[in-house]
Write the structure tokens for this entry.
Amino acid sequence: MSVTIKDLQAYKREGRRFAMLTAYDFTTARILDEAGVPVILVGDSLGNTMLGYDTTLPVTMEEMLHHTRAVRRGLKNALLVGDMPFMSYHASAEDAIRNAGRFLQDGGANAVKLEGAGRVVELTERLTAMGIPVMAHLGLTPQFVNQMGGFKVQGRSDEAAERIQRDALALQEAGAFSMVLEGIPASLGGLISRRLDIPTIGIGAGPDTDAQVLVIQDMLGLSGERVPKFVKRFADLRGAMTTAVGDFMAEVEGGTFPGPEHSYGTGAAPSPAPAEAAIYGAADKG
Ligand code: KIV
């Protein structure tokens, strides 16, 4: 059974915590889906992880849709959320609605994510009314990096914390089905989560949000040496890749790869095993 936004809201009522992860490609999406991750976000963090930008600001709609379609093809059960990139919902409401619609129509997403409040509150109301579910995103909102003066923890003063709470309530009122809370004090993450009926999904927002999200490259240990304090590396795939690539190079240079078991013979051979026939075609025997 595919996960729906109603399921996530039921999880909140039941006090059932859940995980969200980012994915940007078919292979990763399929692994995460098969592992049972209920929500997959094609984050505009793909600007950093896939495209090598310093910020998410250069990411375009076309890049987001390209990756969203790839992820869609890898999913059977997870709810797929597409992240609306910088300037795709800023110039006008018409622009925003058209671009949000493209995530569902062209990308196969089930919902979109928008950063910030202000104008986004009204936009959330309009999108929701049109059948486009909205995941809100408050706190450290990377598309506001220039306004924030860097990637800094938000909501540390009483005034800032109160503003984030007001924005959170307004976005919920406008129809957001869930909310990412990024880079805020743990106490504020817990407070907002208790005040809202919709699930909160924390990243650097402490342990008391309803769900947690991490960027897949960060949690698998594929990012560089410096990662934010909130990242936990659950694996060292960078180390594993480096070892595997080194082993491959050594075997190629030493002439031990490919061996006979990875090489084809000539002439007639017995019928290929079904898997081999399917992968290489029935004519490609032996
Ligand atoms: O772009 C992204 O990956 C995100 C998550 C970190 C929430 O917005």
Summary: The pocket of 3-methyl-2-oxobutanoic acid is lined by residues 22, 41, 43-45, 83, 180, 203, 213, 215 (CB under 6 Å). Residues 281-286 have pLDDT under 50 and may be disordered.
